Amino acid sequence: MKNYTITDRSVLLDLDKLYCNNESQVLNSKAFYDMVVRFLKYLKKQDKIYYRAFRNIDAHTIVRFYKNLFVWNYQDVSQQFKDIPFLEDRIFMYRFTENFYEFWRRFERYAIFKYHTGYSNTTSAIALIEDSMHFESLILRLYRSFAQKIIYRSFPVYRQLSSGVSASLLIRPNNFTHKNFYPKLNKYQFIQSSLLNTPIMLYSHANIRTGVYREVFENPLDTLKINSDYFTYAIWVGNLLAYVYFHKSLMGHGISLGNLFEPARHEQYTGKKPNLICVFGAKDERFDGTYYKDTKNNLYIGTVSLNPKNDYFGYLKKMILTLHNLYMIDEGSLPIHGAMVQITFNNGKRKNVVIMGDSGAGKSETLEALRNIDADIDHMRIVYDDMGVFKFKDDTLISHGTETGAFVRLDDLEAGYAYQNLDRSIFLNPNKTNARVILPVTYYDFIIADHEIDLCLYANNYEDPKESIRLFNNVNVAIEVFTKGTRRAKGTTNEVGITETFFANPFGPLQRKEHCGKLIHDYFNHMFNKHIPIGEIYTRLSIDGMREKGPRMAAESLLKLLKE
């Protein structure tokens, strides 16, 4: 990998090669010069006033100006650069410098550090944090030094804005169990630790996910070229180990995995075969949006291409969950597209509730409304927010989750909820429709524990009956409603109007209809035989004027049912 890579929206710095240990090294780096070049091009398109002032000044001159300004005072430096106009106008030059600083901060900024052999994991993590903080301090000191020398006074208010990088990665090599197992993947760098300077704002080309994933019968890893342009994140998806290879131009989506899934520790994955492999950002589009079952090695492989249409976190998340669900179906477990919450009342009574439904059905919104009702609830714990599984353990039906975080629409959350968790959040396209937030909500050891089920509901977002919940007294009617998967699309995908999706889950069950149909029959009959209530909850989320009122009405009815 190069010392640094700059694209239209991101900067990736290899700080083991770039050597930015002091302000002088920053100013003398080629990366700093390239940022000045890009800033001048930006002024040409966006700020005609500053462009006209500096159109005859090249980047080398501006870099020399800042180098000298770092050492001497503004008045002495201005005498040396007679060819730069407006130097006598300190306010003008201050705003030019301020704009350059903000131009840098608008980039997604990432740094990587190499793991040093002989360091313990704790020592490496401390070094990652200290090196990242040091770089942050360098950039902030440079900006303040320049600004205060130009304006010739200190600031009355100092704001500790994120000035270094948005995220730092500690990487190290990892080998599979033996050299004959996908040998060309052995040499690539794995993320051992990451440091996220949240909140992080990310902006992508796409803002919705379209289509479903299809099976191919040719192993993509036989032909795909995975090189040093890719980073690898080892994560736990439920109890399955996944290796996610993502292209460096999709770094924002890659680092966001740490807010949604449980990263695997090095000792948990080193030298081990994963259950799932996902390639996000493959340059070869033949395998775009496809998955392959490697029966010889008992794993699933998913591929999403580098095409700009796939530049959206939803494509990465849903491919990983599709692979997980296919693996689970093969194991005889039933994938659930829904949310599960453990509710503990003040009297100690505890209930585990599952609400199923496709994207935009109102699952998470109803549970968040329940969280905000002033009632006899002591606390609520999320088991899963989007995807889980039903399993049999002996003769008991249990469920566990896949993710430790949530990827939810900002518009559908209770007012202010996302901002209560601002300090840990990653925001995706906050200025657009379908804006999303990725935030941690629970702990790994909790989501993979064995949770029995007390109530299972289907989220209906398009009907407005008198009552907000109805319970089924016929298992075949229940299976029909859950299997049909009806909802009104809310713009989270390319679908519009009333749609039907098999078992409300296009991420595995849809691809394995026949096999999954048998599992649905077995699991739902078990629930009826064990007298576990199954019903339908009307969230009204897609009905005009009911975006907030609908989930709250559903939550109130749910609370009443649970307390009976």
CATH class of the largest domain: Alpha Beta
The count of helical stretches stands at: 17
Helix content: 25-40%
Give the second-level CATH assignment, the architecture of the largest domain.
Alpha-Beta Complex
Distance between the termini: 62 Å
Q: Your description of this structure?
A:
This protein is of the alpha/beta class. The chain folds into three domains: 4-151, no CATH class; 171-328, no CATH class; 334-404 and 441-563, Phosphoenolpyruvate Carboxykinase, domain 3, CATH 3.90.228.20. It has 17 helices and 27 strands. The strands form five sheets. Strands 14, 15, 16, 17, 18, 22, 23, 24 and 27 form a nine-stranded mixed beta sheet that branches. It has a seven-stranded mixed beta sheet with strand order 7-12-13-11-9-8-10, covered by helices on one side. Helix 7 runs antiparallel to helix 8 and helix 12 (363-371) crosses helix 17 (549-563). The longest helix is centred in the first third of the chain and has 31 residues, at 121-151. It is globular and about 90 Å long. 42% of the residues are buried.
